Amino acid sequence: MVLLEYLRKAAKSETSVYTTFLQQYSKNDKSLHLFHEGKDDPSFYGNFIENKLKKNRKVYYYQAKNKSSVYHYYSKVNWSSYSRKRIIFCVDKDFSDILKIAFPIDTNIFVTEYYSIENYLVNKNIFSRSLRELIGLENDKKNSFLSKGFKIGLKSFYEASLFLSAYILYHRKLNTPLNLQSIVFGDVFEMDDNFLVKRKKNILKALDGKTGVNTTFNYSDIKDVVIELSKINNPKRYTRGKYELMYLVNCINTSPKILNDQRVKGEKKYKCCVSLSHTNGVQILAPRLKEPKDLNLFLSKNLK
Fold first, then answer.
1. Cβ contacts of residue 33 below 8 Å, gap of 6+?
2. For 106, 138, 199, 296, which has the most beta carbons within 10 A of its beta carbon?
């Protein structure tokens, strides 16, 4: 009862993110304070940070909800009194470079190389590890075969999702509010058992219906944005990470069916040992990720 009562009182006395930071920051300890955008960020950054810190250093996380808020908190800190080595800020790049939106640059601000943190998770190695660790596939030949199929399928996803990326960027340029949370993978894509993806017909109408805007007469303008994006050599730089993660999750969840359909007599039946979805994908898959080079460089410099 004591614990429950404490939690009730804490919920009633919630303070602002920045006030919480001021209360928890002490010049007499070596704690690290991280401002980030969303609820999944600690799952992504946490392991890499903990592995670089000495055991007695505590980490505090502050969810700022969006990128602008993260930069807002950065601007509020009096840097003549606070240490940059103990306060770091992590944000997703999204379209800011393409739109040429200027944000503060500092040694303690990490900006993802790709659109968002989810893009780092989608690769052949993560898929292969998921087959082995989440589905229990011990046959290396089958793992290699499926992983190659995933790599080919990922290219088809990038091609199929290019129009979706252009649609989002087009509205970002116009500052049109879009309800992207309502769009799920099946609304705009079809994926077969070879992990190959194709775009659904009448995608513009489907997207307008989901986002609540009307761009039926702007198809040619969006196609111009498609051409603009196709000139960028790495699709991870403009593909919304949440949709790329949806593709990976679908491939992992489809794999047991593919394996079981080809199962020979006496071979075990495969299934995923966790209920993997796009809502918990970062939490489950991030610990299996090799540390990205750009993040490693940033943390190595800031966590000395």
1. 21, 24, 25, 59, 60, 62, 86, 87, 88
2. 199
